[in-house]
Each structure stands twice: as structure tokens, then as C-alpha cells.
Amino acid sequence: MNQVKRNILLNPGPATTTDTVKNAMVVADICPRELEFGELTLSVRNDLIRVAHGEKNHTCVMLTSSGTGGVEACLTSVVPHTKKVLLLINGAYGERMQKICDAYRVEHIDYNQEWGLPLDLNEVESLLKKNQSEVSHIAFIHHETTVGILNPLSEISALAGKYNVETIVDAMSSFAGMKIDVEKDNIHYLVSSSNKCIQAMAGISFIITNKQSLLKTKEVAPRNFYFNLLDNHLYLEKNKQFRFTPPVQTVYALRQALNEYFEEGAENRFARYAAMYEIMRKKVLELGLTFLVEEKHHAKLLTAIHDPKSPAYSFDEMHDYLYERGFTIYPGKVGNINTFRLSNIGAIYPKDIEDFLVVFETYLRLKKII
Ligand SMILES: Cc1ncc(COP(=O)(O)O)c(C=O)c1O
What we know:
Aspartate Aminotransferase, domain 1; 2 domains; Aspartate Aminotransferase, domain 2; alpha/beta; 370 residues; binds pyridoxal-5'-phosphate
């Protein structure tokens, strides 16, 4: 097995991967139309469904794209032309849904909340009530990675159920990082990608969708081609193959990453991530830094921290210092508030976070930032 230099990625994905996942990509060349590759594709789809507890009523559509492609596929394939989607927006990824809808002329009603603040469920409910005859879907981000806020998935899904509206959930940075049960939470479309908490490589987006809901979309005249969700699904079902060229080696990596997810155990993965968050949270407070989002709304997968006030602080300089030592951090701007972000997902462990925090503190003290 090739030993590869290990970088600790604290950016919000692509996340750090294990050497075994990296090495899973070194395989004999294969035509993805071969039966063997079809079996692999099917096993990956089935296991993604298992991760989301959707074995009973859900299927999984895989696309060759980054995560945005999966969101685009949902929004542009499922909303009837005579209906609207209610978008809940409290960060950049919420806004991206708005841009997608505008580009494809999918009618939408927007609930805009200030970035970093929790959604007001009364407001959500009154919008659902007021627009009941027009709204067919509600779309929102589970973990809004822009700021690290967790939007209340079960509560929003319950409201959607009450008003007979289907749910589209962007779970890009929460899928496989915390418990999501598409059956229990009545999620019709759950989107994620291969390079975040599932700990594989970039290149695949996937949508775990309720089969009945998806089949109903045959009534929706296509607005898209490559990203048509139903057409991709029908092709995958009939041929056990991606409709278009798959990222072959990424599929092997995802297979390995799924094996490692089940070997670790879902609960253990969630607990590992939560433990890393807790170590980070304590140290950030000890250093006198402050969070953008109120602690009770933290997703515990990524934390946005206000830039230190000191004139000696420069994000770029801090980034470079840490990067040279094997740690990658990420900037973040929310309106005119500057933050930097530390995520705690991927094949990293509490000891990595402890090591990072030592280097981080050393830097802040060296530069007299704190
Ligand atoms: C919540 C959320 N949605 C969508 C995306 C977009 O994913 P991609 O950059 O893979 O297209 C991201 C990426 O970080 C994300 O965190």
C-alpha cells in the first residue's frame, strides 16, 4: 500500500481520507459498462441508502458531479411547473438553491434569515400555511456549512408533512456525520456528496429519494437533461450502470469508505466527530475567541470563529503558518463579519485536533494576537 503524506484538513471538505480509501482507487482499468462495475455501483447505492436508513422506501441516484449537481438535479427535476418550492435560506448554500431555481426558472418562495441565525419555525409554518395551494416542496440545508449552524431537520419535516409538502434536504456536510433517518423524518430527497463525512473522494453526488415521489416526477416536463433525476434513476435501475461516464476510481474509493463507515460503526463515527468538536470548542473559549453562531445551534461538525480583533491578525498568514505544518483551515465571511472556520469531519481523530490546537495556540501567542 502506498503511504501518502497525511494532511489534516479542517476545511469543510473535501475531507481527509484514510490511506486505504486513497489506495482503493489504484485498480485495474475497467470499462464501467462491465457487469463487475455494475455490481459495484449497485452495492454502493444500496449502502448509501443504508446509511440514511431508507431501505424501505428509498432509492439512490448517483451522479458524476460535485455536491451542487445533486442539489441542482433535485430542484430542477421534481417541482411541477404549476407549483413552487419554499426555500429556507440562512447561509450561502441556501442562497445557492435560489440561484439554481432562478437559472432554471423554477418558481420559488424564499424565507431569508440572517446568516448565522436559526430559522424561525413559526415563520416557516406561516409561509407554508399562506402558500399552501402553491407550494409542493420545501428545500433547506441541514448543516449550513457557511456558518456551522444545524437547521432542525425533524421539525421542518414535520411541518412539511402537516402541509402536505415534500422535502428536499441538502445534507452535504451532515450525511454520515450525524444520524439522519429519511424514513422516520419523512425526507423525500436527501442530497450529499462523496467527499465529506462519508470520507471518500470528490466526484460523486448522490440523492437518496423516496421511490414513489421520484416516479411521480414523470409528470414534470423536463427542464434539464444531464441532471434529470428520474432519467438517471431509470437508467441506473435498468442497467445497473451510471447513465453517463462515472468517475470510475472514485466509485472504488466510495466503496472502501462505506466499508470503513460500517466497520467503525455509525454511532462511533458520530461520537468521534462530536469528541473532536468538544476539544476544539473548549480550547477556542479558553483562548478568548468567540463563536459566530450561538452554541446551542452548533452542528458540531464545523465551527465559525470570529477573527481575532488584534491588528497583528492576518488570516492568510495564519493559514500559511498552519498549512506548512500540515493543517488546513478555511476563511469565512458573513456579511461584513470576518470569521475563519474549523471543521472536524473526515478521517481525523481527537489526537489530530489536540496537535492542531497546540500549533494554533503557539501561533496566536507568537504573533501576540492573544
Ligand atoms: C451544505 C452544502 N451544500 C452544498 C455544497 C456544495 O458542494 P460542492 O462544492 O461539492 O458542489 C456544500 C459544499 O461545501 C455544502 O457544504
